[in-house]
Amino acid sequence: MNKWTKVLGVVAATAMLVPLAACGGGTRGSTTAGGDGGSGDTVKVGISMPEQMLERWKIDGENLKKQLEGYGYEVTLQYADGKTDLQTSQIQNMANNGMNYVVIASIDGTATGAAAEQVAANGGKVIAYDRLIMNTDAVDYYATFSLEDVGKMQGEYIEQKLGLKDGQKGPFNVELMAGSPTDNNAGYYFKGAWDVLGPYFKSGVLQSKSGKVPSSADDWQSIGIDNWDRQKAQNEMENRINSFYNDGTKLDAVLAQNDAEATGTYNTVEAAGWDYYPIITGQDAEKANVQAIVQGKQAMTVYKDTRELAKATAEMIKALVDGKEPEAPDTFNNGNKDVPSQLLTPVTVDKDNLKEVLVDGGYISAADAGL
């Protein structure tokens, strides 16, 4: 077990041939599988994504559906509109209607556990997608990116741009936001960032005028933004800027841990009428945020190629269908078990490498990037 030994989830599945009832909030596509490991029956896969408001989940869902249909599987893709109870209901319907495999990107990794258990009870396998399902044995595999590395990249970017490693003493004003308190991944993201930035706060080189600095990485939920919501992040930054930075005090950097929080931050800066933007981090490389990087509003984002995550997840299912062991060399502990996991590598993107990584890499067009 390496340093990434934490918690993941996949729920095991055997085929039931009950037609899947349509559930609200999603789309459906189906094909018949040939050569599914010997049964000759249709392999049925359910995909539960948390929402469509964040562009990345639409891309994730569509990429994964395309990959699985390419193997000839019958695929049902659904979005839960950010509502935990709706996601639970959708997963339960998938379980009751004979999904052999259910891929779950949880809104709330703890709340999703009961629905995952129903999938397992009905003979299905569950794979936790990007977000771990907690405190249940009904998780077989987990596919995600190196979680702490995401936060570490954000922290190191601030460290580099402020010259902290070069001995700059500041003090620099840095405001911190973490992810959704219900998202298990958010704790790992913040820990990665805090391992870099925490010592500078302790020494006084970094400070936060708002005082919203956790006592440790374990206290990350105290600065969490519910559901990674852009408007909530914007409201939070409006309160901090209006209270502590509209007297001419410079805000040097903001640790925003995804692109929605970054958007809320640079929107607030624009509304305040400042003639500069702080160093603002992000995650997910959403189109609007890529454009914001080109325009100088946002400094960087952590790019996670969801095409590769979809491919890795689809290949896990293909291996299981074929009676093979999926590639999952790491583990995450979800409170009940060590879940076999596959961790992909994220990439720091800013204006210097944006074209090379995102445009030349085929993830986004030059026009969509604002180039």
Descriptive report:
InterPro entries: Bact_Solute-Bind_Prot2, Peripla_BP_I, SBP_2_dom. Pfam families: Peripla_BP_4 (PF13407). It comes from Bifidobacterium myosotis. Residues 1-24 form the signal peptide. It is found in: Cell envelope. The chain is α/β, with parallel strands linked by helices and 371 residues long. It has two domains: 44-139 and 305-344, Rossmann fold; 147-304 and 350-369, 3-Layer(aba) Sandwich (Rossmann fold), CATH 3.40.50.2300. Helix content is 37%, strand content 18%. The chain is built from eleven helices and 15 strands. Strands 1, 2, 3, 4, 5, 6, 7, 13 and 14 form a nine-stranded mixed sheet that branches. It has a four-stranded parallel sheet with strand order 9-8-10-11. A hairpin with a 4-residue loop joins strand 13 and strand 14. Helix 1 packs parallel to helix 9, helix 2 (84-96) packs parallel to helix 3 (113-121) and helix 4 (147-161) packs parallel to helix 5. The longest helix has 20 residues, at 184-203. The protein is globular and about 65 Å long.
CATH classification, class level of the largest domain? Alpha Beta
- Please give the CATH architecture of the largest domain: 3-Layer(aba) Sandwich
- Can you give the helix content as a percent range? 25-40%
Pick out the low-confidence regions: 1-39
Number of helices: 11
Provide the succession of SSEs: EEEHEHEHEEHEHEHEHEHEHEEEHH
CATH fourth-tier homologous superfamily of the largest domain: Response regulator
Would you report the number of β strands?
A: 15
Number of domains: 2
Note the main sheet. Answer: 9 strands, mixed
Radius of gyration: 21 Å
Overall SS class: alpha/beta
Kindly, what is the distance between the CA atoms of the first and last residues, rounded to a whole number of angstroms? 43 Å
The average pLDDT value, as a whole number, equals 89
Assembly state here?
single chain
